[in-house]
Write a structure and sequence with these properties.
Helices cover 48% and strands 14% of the residues.
């Protein structure tokens, strides 16, 4: 879903450039800057979308209007290519981690994890998935249904049965909302608990995510909101003496993560951050 949002935003910028009647580059850039600020304000914690916006707007060459338009449109096409192809690349790399007879533990609904598992299935690998619920949104059930549609056998556990599901597992695959500068991964609530239990059972934990999930800005916005969701999702009218803390997300510490499976390969969290900073200085 994050890549779909990014592509939608990129196409809106493309429409702005193609329809612009600006005579000077400065006029077009002012219009795009206003559009950029408006969009970023509306997607405070959407890492992939934020990176897409930053990619097309950093260090634009200020030449004549036609040169500037061509530069921006080229970047937009490159960004669209990235968000359109990264999923297939992650699936290709991640599916090689799934071996015959494995039990794969998953949590929440991650398109990247789903694509990895369906690709492994199509490649003829037989395996089983252990899936724990993620309340109150029931993402575990939705993920189990998606797996079943692809004829992948699933054992579905209550959210508190993490230990029971884990001790029979060989590998953990989870998605990510954001990857922070210090290598922490922001995931669905329960993610760090699962990683912690996995360490006790010596089960490797892999995060499956586009490198554009790395964002200092998005991580900062998450922290401002304290990772909380509306209390009404779990208790609409609690007694006055009860404070409802509906944490929807939490951080997984880097030392609990075996590797991050991305479109560029599999890296330790800090190794991935190092590579991204070196090769993508525009990332914010």
């Amino acid at each position: 879903m994050s890549n779909i949002l990014a592509k939608k935003i990129l196409l809106s910028f493309k429409k702005t450039v193609l329809s612009s009647r600006a005579k000077e580059s400065s006029d077009l850039l002012k219009k795009l800057h206003f559009q950029k600020q408006k969009i970023l304000k509306g997607i405070p914690a959407k890492a992939v979308a934020r990176n897409a916006v930053h990619y097309i707007s950093h260090n634009i060459r200020k030449g004549n209007i036609n040169t500037t338009k061509a530069d921006i449109l080229h970047r937009i096409d490159e960004a669209i290519s990235h968000v359109s192809s990264s999923s297939a690349q992650i699936s290709s790399i991640g599916s090689k981690k799934i071996k015959k007879g494995m039990v794969v533990y998953v949590h929440g609904f991650s398109e990247s994890v789903l694509n990895i598992l369906t690709k492994a299935k199509k490649e003829g690998v037989s395996f089983e998935v252990h899936c724990t619920e993620e309340k109150p949104h029931m993402e575990g059930r939705l993920f189990a249904i998606a797996l079943a549609k692809n004829k992948i056998p699933v054992k579905y556990y209550a959210d508190l049965a993490i230990r029971q599901a884990m001790k029979r597992s060989d590998i953990v695959l989870m998605g990510a909302n954001i990857i922070s500068e210090n290598g922490q991964v922001y995931g669905r609530i329960g993610s760090e608990l699962i990683a912690d239990v996995a360490e006790r059972f010596d089960v490797p934990v892999y995060i499956c995510a586009d490198t554009w999930k790395y964002s200092k800005e998005a991580a900062s916005e998450f922290d401002k909101n304290k990772l909380l969701r509306p209390q009404g999702e779990i208790w609409s009218k609690p007694p006055k003496a009860v404070t409802v803390l509906n944490y929807g997300f939490e951080k997984i510490h880097p030392w609990l993560i075996t590797g991050i499976i991305s479109e560029t390969g599999i890296y330790k969290p800090h190794q991935l951050i190092f590579e991204l900073k070196k090769n993508n200085p525009w990332m914010m």
